[in-house]
Design goal:
Layout lengths: L4 H6 L7 E4 L3 E5 L9 E5 L11 H8 L2 H12 L3 E5 L15 E6 L19 H12 L3
């Protein structure tokens, strides 16, 4: 895609700190470095988000995630790793070329936060059954 910053990185029109590359994907440092060692994995073919990925593209991306996550964790002796993928503006996606973040974690004050609200008291078993069925109907 002509105006996509990640496509420009793939085409060497914009410099990057490449870590790994094969015929399907490119992994490179995120220049924002939310935490030290923050890596992005992108498909070389342009897909806007996870909803555009086909099965082959998904396999080619995700088969490399464990090895790259382990390399990042070991390189910086991280206490943990977040694997993050944002899809759509409401989810925080800012570059509309599918990508996976590998974010090493050091402690709760390292600059990255994930907050999961526990809403168990808001849903009955019947509510959960209905939610599950709505999703199953789309599979």
């Amino acid at each position: 895609m002509k105006d996509c910053i990640f496509c420009k990185i793939i085409n060497n029109e914009i410099p990057s700190f490449k870590l790994y590359e094969n015929e399907y994907i490119l992994a490179f440092l995120d220049i924002s470095q939310v935490t030290k060692g923050h890596v992005l994995i992108i498909p070389k073919e342009h897909y806007k988000d996870i909803h555009e990925l086909d099965e082959t593209a998904a396999k080619n991306i995700f088969k490399n995630v464990p090895e790259l996550a382990t390399a990042v964790k070991e390189a910086f002796n991280a206490s943990g790793i977040n694997i993050v993928n944002n899809n759509g503006e409401a989810a925080g996606q800012t570059v509309f070329h599918y990508h996976v973040h590998i974010i090493p974690r050091y402690n709760e004050k390292d600059g990255f936060r994930t907050i999961f609200t526990n809403n168990m008291d808001r849903y009955t078993n019947d509510d959960l059954k209905q939610i599950a069925n709505q999703i199953k109907d789309k599979l």
